[in-house]
Amino acid sequence: MNKSYSYGKQTIGQDDIDAVVEVLKGDWLTQGPYVKRFENELASKFGAGYVSAVANGTAGLHLIALALGWGKEDIIITSPITFLASANCILYVGATPDFVDIDPQTYTIDVNKLEDKIKEYRNKNKRIKAVIGVDYAGLPCDWESLRELSKKYDLQLVNDNCHALGAEMDGDIGYACKYADAVNMSFHPVKHITTGEGGAVLTNNQEIDENIKILRTHGMTKEKKHLIKNDGPWYYEMQHLGFNYRITDFQCALGTSQLKKLDEFVKKRNEIAEFYDLSFANDERFIVPKYSKKYKHAFHLYPLLIDFNKLEVKKHIFFDELAKSGINLQVHYIPVHLQPYYKNNFSYAENDYPVAESFYLKEVSLPIYPNLNRSDLEFIVDKIKAKAR
Ligand SMILES: *Cc1c(COP(=O)(O)O)cnc(C)c1O
């Protein structure tokens, strides 16, 4: 009877199952009508001119890096508090990653430190080509300032939006495409909506979209207007080195069905966040997420900061103890620059990004997903408070 909780989990209903089964009975398993349909639904939901559904969020980031023309000479900035893929996509194309510390209030990239970093490079006669902003936990970055910097210093902007489906800026759910040249989403089961594995790239730039679509399927084209010559109806040309980063039709049927419920999912996540806020906000041992009314938070994660120095319990023991009650916490994230691969290849070291590193020591991601009910939440809060003393 013991329930167990993790930080995130999919919500699948009979409607989702029916949608997938219907496609499985039909003629197309891979590139059928549902891919286009899912893309169209995403475009209208998030106000994007162009959408490409892809195999997963990491593939989406790789395609963005290629479509934006990043290469060997380029320096690309992201946040150290993100999933590995946000930084790895820079390495895939041979460019150089660098990091800018997070803001201690919002946990997203610190725009003042970003400008310092831009100037630092300028003094060395180098320039930053692009910034990948990560809307960490579901809270949009300071995109207005990012856009100002992008104009001032001629930067490309990418939004790694994997945490923030359904978030809003000034009441606008389509903010991501407004501010960034390209936007990346993931439909992994822990994210807001799922297709199993899956992702999408959104943009308002037609040229970026064309690049993404051709690179998603081996860099080949059959479109007459793009062909250099044409031998006949069978003819196709490979003009770029691409990949098979396609998604299947039955996954897109699931995605289409899930997308209908996004608003409801985000509402539920906000209700859970509010319960945690009320439970932890007036206790000095904890820091709950804070953000301005300008934003609607999508709460992919609920990052609670715990000052383990003030407690008589070490973080790893706290984790072990809660796991005994079936509460499997997580930490998002181990700062990327401290990963052995990054330390070894780029000589990053401890204390390079002190805000991110102290955040890492305190951060605990509490369970947050639509199927948690009131008694689940009371149980989780009680167990956490009982251990934290
Ligand atoms: C999930 C995630 C990704 C990668 O998505 P996959 O679909 O798992 O490849 C990239 N960036 C961030 C911030 C993510 O949370």
Task: Please give a structural write-up.
The protein is built from 14 helices and 14 strands. The protein is of the alpha/beta class and 389 residues long. It has two domains: 14-259, Type I PLP-dependent aspartate aminotransferase-like (Major domain) (Aspartate Aminotransferase, domain 2); 262-387, Aspartate Aminotransferase, domain 1. The protein has a seven-stranded mixed β-sheet, with helices on both faces. It has a three-stranded antiparallel β-sheet with strand order 11-13-14. Strands 6-12 form a two-stranded antiparallel ribbon. The mean pLDDT is 96. Pyridoxal-5'-phosphate is lined by residues 56-58, 82-83, 85-86, 134, 160, 162-163, 186, 188, 199.
Please give a handful of descriptors for the protein shown:
389 residues, alpha/beta, Aspartate Aminotransferase, domain 2, Aspartate Aminotransferase, domain 1, three-stranded antiparallel beta sheet, 14 strands, globular, binds pyridoxal-5'-phosphate
Structural topology:
Layout: H1 14-24, H2 33-46, E1 50-54, H3 57-67, E2 75-78, H4 84-92, E3 96-99, H5 111-123, E4 128-134, H6 143-153, E5 156-160, E6 168-169, H7 175-179, E7 182-186, E8 199-203, H8 206-215, E9 220-221, E10 237-238, H9 249-259, H10 262-280, E11 286-287, E12 295-296, E13 302-306, H11 315-324, H12 340-346, H13 354-362, E14 363-366, H14 374-387
Bound molecules: pyridoxal-5'-phosphate.
